[in-house]
Task: inverse folding
């Protein structure tokens, strides 16, 4: 990757400048090497700020994870109140439903959710139009505060969940639809592991 023009121009040492300073061959090479190393360090510093997981990607948390229920439901502590949260826009195979059998890839989805959101993990909950579902669960898009990971989308992208639209909560429907179509076409996760995904 080339060093940006502004950095090159600012840090360049021309031969006439070095010669006028009375610098010989070895000292001149050392000075040029130092300038190039400094330019490279500046470039790396700029690039690393845009990578995932950098401090600039951290989000302000408004809840902490208490436990994972299954692949699309978690329990959190928000403002001192324990809340059951259903992730909006996605659906994972059943693994703990009281009247339904465990579905193909249900346990794997739950384990993956637990690997993403450990107990006491700081998260940011973002609502859509409706605050709660008919079971009284808080409806939210969930972001991991430490690195900004959009958990709902990650579950779909990695083949642990399907897109599940429930209007009027549709803020990210196109992202979920695209991610699900890609995972399905590439046979990622449940799309290759389950002969009939989401069927009992």
Result:
């Amino acid at each position: 990757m080339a060093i940006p023009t502004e950095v090159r121009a600012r840090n360049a040492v021309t031969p006439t400048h070095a010669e006028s300073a009375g610098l010989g061959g070895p000292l001149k090479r050392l000075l040029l090497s130092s300038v190039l190393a400094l330019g490279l360090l500046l470039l790396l510093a700029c690039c690393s700020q845009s990578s995932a997981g950098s401090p600039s990607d951290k989000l302000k948390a408004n809840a902490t994870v208490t436990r994972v229920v299954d692949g699309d439901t978690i329990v959190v502590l928000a403002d001192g109140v324990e809340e059951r949260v259903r992730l909006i826009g996605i659906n994972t195979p059943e693994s703990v439903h009281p009247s339904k059998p465990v579905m193909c890839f249900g346990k794997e989805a739950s384990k993956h959710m637990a690997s993403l959101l450990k107990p006491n993990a700081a998260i940011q909950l973002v609502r859509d139009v409706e605050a709660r579902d008919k079971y009284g669960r808080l409806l939210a898009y969930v972001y991991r505060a430490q690195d900004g990971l959009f958990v709902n989308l990650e579950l779909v992208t990695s083949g642990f969940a399907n897109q599940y639209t429930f209007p009027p909560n549709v803020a990210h429907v196109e992202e979920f639809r695209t991610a699900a179509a890609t995972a399905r076409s590439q046979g990622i996760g449940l799309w290759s592991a389950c002969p009939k995904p989401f069927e009992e």
